[in-house]
Amino acid sequence: MRTSSRRTRGTRRTVIAVVATAALALTAAGCGGGDDDKGTPDGGGSSSGGSGSVSLPDLKGQKLEVAAVWTGPEQKNFQKVLDEFTQRTGAEVGFVPTGDNVSTFLGTKIEGGQPPDVAFLPQVGVLRQFAQKGWLKPLSSDVQAQLDKNFSTGWKDLGAYEGKQYGVYAKAANKSLVWYNTAAFENAGISEPPGTWEDFLQTAETLFESGTPPVSVGGADGWTLTDWFENVYLSQAGPEKYDQLAAHKIKWTDPSVKDALTTLAQLFGKKDLIAGGQSGALKTDFPKSVTQTFTGNPPKAAMVYEGDFVGAFIGDNTKAKVGEDAKVFPFPAVGSGKAPVVSGGDVGVALKDTKGAQALLTFLASTDAAKVWASSGGFVSPNKSLDLSAYPNEVSRSIAEGLVAAGDDFRFDMSDQAPAAFGGTAGKGEWKDLQDFLRNPSDVAGAQAKLEADAAKAYAG
Amino acid sequence: MATAATAKGPAASGGAPSARRRSVMGTRRWVAGLFLLPALVLLGALVVYPIGYTTWRSLFDKAGSGFVGLHNYASVFSDDSTLTALRNTAVWVVVAPVLATALGLVFAVLTERVSWGTAFKLVVFMPMAISMLAAGIIFRLVYEQDPARGAANAVVVGVHDTFAESSAYPGARPRPNGSLAASGGGSYTTRDAAGEGTAVGLPLIGVPAAKLPAGTADARQATAGPGVTGTVWLDFKPGGGGEPGVIDAGEKALEGVKVEAVRDGRVVASATSGTDGTFSLPASAAGAQLRLPASNFAEPYNGVDWLGPTLVTPAIIGAYLWMWAGFAMVLIAAGLAGVPRELMEAARIDGANEWQVFRRITVPLLAPVLVVVVVTLMINVMKIFDLVYIVAPDTSKDEANVLALQLYLSSFGAGNDQGVGSAIGVILLLLVVPVMVFNIRRLRREARR
Fold this sequence. Notes:
The structure holds two protein chains of two kinds.
Chain A: H1 9-29, E1 63-68, H2 72-89, E2 92-97, H3 102-111, E3 118-121, H4 124-133, H5 141-150, H6 153-158, E4 160-161, E5 164-165, E6 167-174, E7 177-181, H7 182-187, H8 197-209, E8 215-216, H9 222-246, H10 255-268, H11 277-282, H12 286-291, E9 303-305, H13 309-317, E10 326-330, E11 342-350, H14 355-365, H15 367-375, H16 394-405, E12 411-412, H17 414-417, H18 420-423, H19 429-439, H20 444-460
Parallel strand pairs in A: 1-2, 1-3, 8-9, 11-12
Antiparallel strand pairs in A: 3-11, 4-5, 6-11, 7-9, 7-10
Helix pairs in contact in A: 1-3, 2-15, 5-14, 9-10, 9-19, 19-20
Chain B: H1 2-25, H2 29-57, H3 71-78, H4 80-111, H5 117-125, H6 132-142, H7 151-163, E1 180-182, E2 188-190, E3 199-204, E4 228-234, E5 258-263, E6 266-272, E7 278-281, E8 289-292, H8 312-337, H9 341-349, H10 354-382, H11 386-391, H12 397-400, H13 403-412, H14 418-448
Parallel strand pairs in B: 3-4
Antiparallel strand pairs in B: 1-2, 2-8, 4-7, 5-6, 5-8
Helix pairs in contact in B: 1-2, 1-14, 2-14, 3-14, 4-5, 4-8, 4-10, 4-13, 5-8, 8-10, 9-10, 10-14, 13-14
């Protein structure tokens, strides 16, 4: 999730609704068993096919299904990887877009007895939840070998549950980036991107003076707000507190949360510093928050915070050129802390225990797949064996470098680690509470109380 | 679940006549049974079994393996969003059917008298041909905040702006800690009193230079003259480097800003800045503080926040009325056709005015039809889901929540807890039952008549 693929929200909702209704009817009628497992392979030769650093079995004539949230250019780029897989193994791979609410989509598919072979989960919380229910199949030794070769412990641990490896983090995201419109910065006479939160606020003030609304916040999508909070919190409270809060070992009423929200209110509370004011921000979804920053003169905003996937989105939806009209600086350090590196990613898991599924995951964990994927841009791999020259431009190279260089110091998106009811559902839990906070930034204590109440409920169940 | 419950209505009422027919015609029991079998099997599989299973499932936990008794029901009634859903469903059930019926009644009675009534009815009925989902998407657009995109706000803003003037420089303000200070209500006042013979500087920021009208002149230092003079200008040099509070070369004038001289809380003189940003006040303004009233900076009126937390449910009910008022109208119009004209004419001859005829004759005669319409709509509204799901944006989905939506979200949404979902389904069924019983009784009464 958290990718640029949230554009056709209306239509995808439709799909979910239809699928869900169908599933509802099935379960209600008590005949939810699936009976056409066409994807199940029956044996097949295991000769290693293809070239490169990974050996794959021959899967001629088999059909695989992969489900992920990506649409548009992201799906196209992923399709290239699938095509490469088909070429090497002969297996036919079909792509199923899951829509916004991945856990709901997959949940109904699994309950209905027809899961896809491989699915990409956007949240660690969902991986744990699915693993706990026994919906995930453990990875084979082939996949494990690729993981050991190419991934750092931090990334491997994120794909494991209770000591068993279930997932491959084939696609990562660096979510500590602020993208800015170079023309707006030039117009305001700002030559140096800010390095600290104070500088950041000062820059925003200068931008306002110049007549460009400084910061674009995509408040209609709750996940952008959780990402804002996480960056401030990681930098201000430090990684230990971050891990504790992510596991709900400390409460959201903790003073450190209060500090982070108060810091955030220094931006969110100033109508002038946010494009459209608070109410405008709440009606701005993520795609609009990006496009409005990079279209028009003067643009409707000068800076927009989000992850690396903004790059692909800019190239795709605006006339601005990444690297010239649109540049990026790391999220500023708050207080005495270090600049944060919050990451996200999509983890590939096997929902069916088939040879094809394991072979595809083996391929996805390999450097070969990462290379194909990286070459089309808008993609960052945590694969440390991947040569940085595989990335198509300077901006994405620097983003990837930052992510890999962080080693095990990075922290995974907190809301993605939380149970989906808290950190991954539109209009609920943390998403909703932070939207309410954006609507009324002066009520820090009220926001904390609501966050804690929702978190307590979600973590308990 | 709700759908199952509604399906039960016609089935149950259909069972009664067939039972009677057997006794009348003397058909053998097993033959009757044989003919009933397909229907019974279908009803059993699609209605009775799901109801039973849902009730059973509602007593188990999330995983479906542990028996929890009535715990799911307890958690339903302690969960904030479910309580909101319950409250909203109550609002829906009371308001939507009544309003739709009232509208339908008005439409039906009025269209009866005009020659193009059929055309009007056709237009009002047309939304019925659209699916809830499509209607939801349409109304998502209608309620869009941006007046350039949302029809509802385009109307509201259009009407508002006809009566209220827009300001010259919305959003502009002075630098903090500059010569001007906020003086409440969105106006700004100079810290010092203006002396005669010195030019006052009133620097503002926050206006994009590119948005000033083409050909805007550079700001000019006002000549110290008789009375109080000064300049209002945009104190920002494109590209940066300007000195705050000083008119640097290339900084633009702000034309048309109202400046008031205030002494002891009273406005003693006022002026408007010219093309080069300068203004001059008479000598009487000397010693007064200069104020830029809020009317210079008022944000443009942005319309109503239809889909915000407070208005979202009424707004969605509005969308529902758009769809279903036509349905009510058609049924009521059919009933109206059966009302004897003589009664109305007699009343008119007796000197009743139109309102009295409507109130004392038409409505009482139509009462049975009105009850049918209200009850049908109530059942329909009880399971409202798609409109709310589509129209309410994420930011106010919680406030727009209804039971059927909460059922879906609990069962298949983030919680994935089908125990709680089933409990909500059972509650929904229990809420529909009284309405169904009422409906069946009424049908029986009518059959007996």
